[in-house]
Design brief:
This protein is of the alpha+beta class. The protein contains 19 helices and 16 strands. The strands form two sheets. A nine-stranded mixed beta sheet has the order 1-9-15-14-13-10-11-12-16, sandwiched between helices. It has a seven-stranded mixed beta sheet with strand order 2-8-7-6-3-4-5, sandwiched between helices. Helix 2 runs antiparallel to helix 3.
Length: 486
């Protein structure tokens, strides 16, 4: 067999101009692929990074690009179709008003979701308190429970949540569970069977399609949202997945994280976010839903809520990068302080400029990240930005030893943004994310108190010119090169 292979290769090598043919084929391949990447109109640095990677690794690079390269999903048709299909037009659940802030107007323009209000918002710190609150709300459900999660593990936390859902489904409550096919890949049919037997529905977001010909896999485009809506009256969202890794009652090293329980008119917007994702994943039409169940008339009207609230969604189906844009806009509007807490910090140029400008302008500008995240490569990339930020006057804190997983932002004394989105390229451009923006002094003061405790227990980073070249500075610089691809 080996002799036959060598004979074939010798025969091919003797063909005239074989080298020129192979070289020409490679050039054509690279030009065509480069044109495709350029037409995606991403940031020049990211575009050049992909092109150079493909040029250096022509075969492996093409496979990686096939799995993880730039992809767009046209879901705007679902947004346009909401009113036609009867899921809810905003002349019914709320419209623009003349008193909303510029940030709220930008939020509506980039997401299609108008400013709204909440009657109650409760901060839920860490997993134990969050799971208890969600399971308690599920136990009181009368009409439906809609859930969407990136990570839902078949462990103690996941089993407790599943059993609570199955109990309600047996009682006739409509239960819909939407799971990300990659983040929740450890869940199998056996684990879900009690819920399915009770009448619950389960759907998968972007199932893996590696073995399906002519089907490009969506490995790089995940729903990173964590959302629960009960009876259209109360909603939960934030950074906490369903996993023992975040259950501080069972795991002393559980992630430090933040979630919210929300009541009021803004729950309508959160309901629409879930329904759009559910319809996208399942292909079901609006005829499968009863409007009076989804949007109960007894939910407070927008003018009855005292907390100004705005739902922010972003994902690869929109070029506006709404959550990214709102963070940058809020930083630019700030006059006194900017506090940012994130587990993954890989900023783009606009965000980096906004943060350093705030610090240079004398604002109390702080960044808190984990001392060591669950990705060493991302930790190195984040630290590569520290020198510039410190020089501008940004105070940087590293939280530990627990992994910091909170995603929170405060501008001045009235604006805060909390949700599922990390401060990196993946959250801003690739993942389907969900954040809440509030304009309320009381709520911001409560978040201030929570974050102040974390700042007090964190270690402040100080500038140093003595950091080792080979163990720190060079690995950080190398990791930074891959930032546009992270």
């Amino acid at each position: 067999m080996r002799d036959a292979f060598h004979s074939l290769w010798a025969s091919l090598s003797s063909l005239p101009h074989l080298g020129q043919i192979l070289a020409a084929t490679y050039v054509v391949y690279l030009v065509l692929l480069a044109c495709y990447i350029v037409l995606q109109k991403r940031e020049p640095v990211a575009t050049l990074s992909w092109i150079l990677s493909l040029a250096a690794l022509p075969y492996i690079g093409l496979f990686v690009f096939y799995l993880f390269g730039p992809q767009r999903i046209v879901r705007q048709r679902l947004r346009r179709g909401r009113s036609r299909e009867g899921l809810g037009t905003y002349d019914a659940v709320g419209a623009q008003d003349d008193t909303c802030t510029e940030l709220a107007r930008v939020g509506q323009a980039t997401t299609g979701l108008p400013p709204s209000t909440a009657t109650e918002v409760d901060w839920l710190v860490d997993g134990a308190a969050t799971y208890a609150a969600i399971i308690g709300a599920i136990g009181q459900a009368r009409r439906h429970v809609n859930l969407e999660y990136y990570i839902f593990e078949p462990d103690h936390a996941g089993t407790a949540m599943r059993d609570a859902l199955a109990e309600r489904a047996k009682a006739g409550v409509k239960v819909r569970l939407l799971l990300d096919a990659v983040g929740s890949s450890r869940i199998g049919k056996r684990f879900l069977q009690p819920l399915l037997d009770a009448g619950g529905e389960v759907a998968w977001f972007h199932p893996r399609q590696l073995l399906k010909p002519f089907k490009r896999p969506w490995l790089n485009l995940r729903t990173h949202r964590k959302l629960v809506v009960v009876d259209g009256e109360v909603a939960f969202t934030g950074g906490i997945n369903v996993t023992d890794e975040e259950d501080d009652s069972r795991n002393p090293n559980a992630y430090r994280d933040l979630h919210m329980r929300i009541r009021g008119h803004v729950v309508h917007s959160l309901q629409l976010v879930f329904l759009e994702d559910w319809i996208y994943a399942t292909g079901q039409g609006a005829g499968n839903f009863r409007r009076e169940d989804l949007f109960p008339p007894d939910v407070p009207r927008r003018d009855q809520g005292t907390i100004r609230a705005q739902v922010l969604v972003s994902g690869p189906d929109s070029a506006w990068e709404a959550i990214h844009r709102l963070h940058v806009a809020a930083i630019q509007e700030a006059r006194h302080r900017v506090w940012l807490v994130t587990p993954y910090f890989v900023p783009g140029e606009a965000a980096r400029m906004a943060l350093t400008s705030a610090a240079l302008g004398g604002l109390d500008t702080r960044l808190m990240v984990p001392r060591q995240s669950d990705s060493k490569f991302v930790t190195l990339a984040a630290r590569s930005y520290f020198d510039e930020l410190l020089e501008a006057g940004v105070r940087i804190f590293e939280y530990g030893p627990r992994m910091l997983h909170s995603k929170a932002f405060i501008a001045d004394d009235h604006t805060c943004i909390v949700g599922t989105a990390n401060f990196d390229h993946r959250s801003f451009r690739l993942n389907f994310e969900l954040s809440m923006m509030y304009n309320d002094r009381g709520l911001t003061a409560e978040l201030d108190a929570i974050l102040q405790q974390e700042f007090d227990s964190a270690t402040e980073v100080v500038p140093s010119s003595q950091r080792p070249l080979w163990r720190q500075r060079l690995p950080e610089a190398v990791a930074r090169l891959a930032s546009p691809l992270l």
